[in-house]
Protein: Protein-S-isoprenylcysteine O-methyltransferase Ste14
Organism: Algoriphagus boseongensis
Amino acid sequence: MANVLLILSWVLFYFLHTALASGKLKRFLEAEWPRFYKNYRLFYTLLSILLFSGIFFQALFLSVHHLFDSRGFPRYLGYLLATLGIVVFSRSMKEISVNNFLFKEEKKSTELIQKGIYSKSRHPLYLGITLVFLGYFLVAGTLGSLIHLACLALYLPFGIYFEEKNLVALFGESYRKYKQEIPAFFPKIFN
């Protein structure tokens, strides 16, 4: 039952993550509740952090069911992938002005970021998180870690689709061109 609850928690998190990031909702809030919209990004981020923390708190109380022996090579590979994921995530956050992201209106503060790690991958944040979750699964080798990874893997195509729909609406032709030149997830090794 705890595993089902974990899956449902991820479904709720990803549903709210996508629904609250929708362009239609943002336009509605901007038109109907401009004072709330001014702080919407901060609200959205804090709610995401709260829900994400709740999922990991919940995971602390899962009974441990090992799927494979993670000692040796799987564990070392897991640490390597998780570390790489943290590096990718950190480098992608370096390109984003957190202050602008949280406290300025979207239309006034955004510019299409195409430098740094964003010149190699359109969604390095997602790539970094995926590598961390994959590394965690290889280190832990548990059913709970597989559920975290599987829920993320199932969500990503939808998350990327809706995020890119918003980015096309925001940046137009420049994002379409960027989308044609830069892979969504894994960087091209050979150009």
About this structure: The chain has one domain: 2-181. Residues 2-181 form a domain with the Four Helix Bundle (Hemerythrin (Met), subunit A) fold (CATH 1.20.120). The mean pLDDT is 89. The chain is about 75% helix and 0% strand.
